[in-house]
Specification:
disordered N terminus, 32% helix, Nuclear Transport Factor 2, Chain: A, four-stranded antiparallel sheet, 103 residues, alpha+beta
Length: 103
């Protein structure tokens, strides 16, 4: 019985900690459009991604299922017939970046 109570306490504590991470991003977003573009461009330069045949097509603010915001900066290949010629740099509100390659 004590083991069951301990497991219940551990489980509920874990849920409370996980629930704290699900807060939506406050508005206005902590990272502005200009900052997001700069962070994305710095990422591209730092990773030496060749963009000579690409252009920055869009930068959009998106939210995940928990209401947390991020910016998606999408580069498109100049050859529109090329399948998967795009990529996205996702910029989080903490300025972390993720590369999402085209398919």
């Amino acid at each position: 019985m004590k083991t069951l109570k301990l497991l219940l306490v551990v489980f509920v504590s874990g849920l409370c900690l996980a629930a704290d991470d699900t807060k939506p991003t406050p508005l206005p977003p902590p990272v502005s459009l200009k900052e997001a573009v700069r962070v994305a461009e710095d990422y591209v330069a730092g990773k030496k991604i060749d963009t000579s045949q690409h252009y920055l097509a869009s930068v959009r603010i998106q939210s995940d299922t928990r209401g947390r915001l991020h910016w998606d900066a999408q580069w498109m290949h100049t050859d529109k017939a090329l399948k998967g010629g795009w990529f996205i740099i996702r910029v989080g509100m903490d300025k972390t970046t993720t590369l999402i390659p085209g398919k």
